[in-house]
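User: Hey, my collaborator sent me this sequence without any context and asked if I could get a structure. I don't really work with proteins. Can you help?
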Amino acid sequence: MTNAGFQLPSADRAPDPIQYFELYRGIAWKRVFAYFIDVVVIAFILGAAVLVFGIVGIFTFGLLTPLLVIIFALIPFLYHTLLLAGPHHATLGMRVFGVEMRSLTSHYPDVVQAAIQTALFYFSVGVTAWLIVIWALFNPRRRLLHDILAGTYVVNRRAAQSVPA
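Assistant: No problem. I've predicted the 3D structure and written it out in structure-token form, which is a compact way to encode the shape of the chain:
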């Protein structure tokens, strides 16, 4: 199966990190810094939601204010899920650093796979207090545990386009 410039060796493995070194060069750091950008973007979206639901809360005498709790949980989840499954297959932070998510079983993750990856990400980070990120240092493809469980991997976009099939 040809996938944006390179051939996947099989349906259960990402491209070889030795043969395709440029695909994974700097991925671990790029992902960390990309997430910082995503946190800022999510904070702005959450701020806008607080403003909107604050006004709505005033007009409804506080009856709809409890919805803000649900909105606060959904916004980061939807941000990651919809952008990873979207046309760029990357969050805004990932786009800034030129990386994109790929799927082991198809070209790119669909909405379900992106939702699973996002849920596993937030669960693993919440349980391990970011210690799970260390996992990438011992993995040649720089995949994190939630990537492995969701069947995804992250590559440098430009390198993926320049590697011959």
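In plain terms: The two ends are 10 Å apart (CA to CA). You can pass these tokens on to your collaborator as they are.
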